[in-house]
Amino acid sequence: MTIEYATPYRTRSLIPPEPGKPYFIEKGQGDRAHLFGDLFTVYAGGEQTENTFNFFTCEGPKGDIIPAHSHPDTYEVFYVTQGAVRLFVEDLEGEQYEKLLSPGDFGFVPKNCPHAYRMERHHTQIVGVAAGPGGTFERFFENLGTPTDELTLPARPFVPEGSKFATVPAEYDVRFLPGHEWRTGG
């Protein structure tokens, strides 16, 4: 028996829309969205955790760096399960760090720290968890990107219109940093 819950973001979901209900999701069957060349799959979010944390995966091909951004109230972790990801982070004093993460490697980004990443190998997957006093941001992916029922990467990258970058961030604790430069050499 399959139970399909509706959330405010989609007409069909396997994730219950309220906290306090145990549930199970098979691999890849969370709420999915295409953004840029990547597939984001949310397994748990603010609705299920009373806005204490989220849990999602990001899968993608080798590609361009995603735009620099920060989360004023959210801490974020990157755990690589396959492929490789180059993580760029700037601390609150302006010192920049760059690290190539391979399967089993972990990266931590404190709140307010500018960061970006680039998939360095095809078939890369990141497990992400974010938490903070301001809530969670996982619904950002489908609101900036496009919800999908597909289990695969987008056939063509989904690049949002420029104006959308200004409207979505305030609601989802994401602040884009246009023109931010990485001086780490990567």
Automatic annotation (TrEMBL):
Full protein name: Quercetin 2,3-dioxygenase
Domain Cupin type-2: 61-119
CDD domains named among the record's database cross-references: cupin_QDO_N_C
InterPro entries named among the record's database cross-references: Cupin_2 (IPR013096), QDO-like (IPR053146), RmlC-like_jellyroll (IPR014710), RmlC_Cupin_sf (IPR011051)
One Pfam family named in its UniProt record: Cupin_2
Domain of life: Bacteria
Organism this protein belongs to: Streptomyces gilvifuscus
Signal peptide extent: none
